[in-house]
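Section 5: illustrative case.
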């Protein structure tokens, strides 16, 4: 891609925020896969050590869990790229805010979790706070 028409500041902005969005998406996908796998697996019973051990053996033999771990590790590598370019006080809240937004959408779409007015207001407040942080 030819970046000659884009200023250095704009490249920095695109790369920095691009990493934050990408790390948030990958992290949410990992968490989403874990949630889905745990729902398929069922509730863990704590009545004996053998039951807990059996639950974890079955859980960690599932390739979906390993895919989720890979997504989370990959998101961590993008986190490192983002933190090298941005202030921690902006980058970390941004990644959390973006994650909350995607989790709300995916939870509603896939798990049929309700989206209440409070959820929507909370997302708007989080995004407003992120906007204010970026302007300081």
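Designed sequence:
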């Amino acid at each position: 891609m030819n970046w000659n028409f884009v200023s250095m500041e704009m490249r920095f902005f695109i790369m920095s925020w691009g990493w934050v969005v990408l790390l948030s998406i990958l992290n949410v996908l990992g968490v989403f896969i874990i949630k889905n796998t745990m729902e398929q697996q069922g509730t863990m019973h704590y009545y004996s050590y053998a039951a807990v051990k059996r639950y974890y053996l079955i859980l960690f033999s599932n390739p979906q869990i390993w895919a989720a771990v890979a997504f989370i590790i990959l998101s961590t590598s993008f986190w490192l790229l983002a933190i090298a370019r941005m202030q921690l006080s902006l980058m970390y809240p941004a990644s959390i805010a973006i994650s909350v937004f995607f989790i709300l959408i995916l939870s509603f779409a896939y798990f049929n979790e309700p989206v209440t007015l409070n959820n929507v207001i909370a997302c708007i407040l989080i995004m407003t706070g992120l906007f204010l942080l970026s302007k300081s």
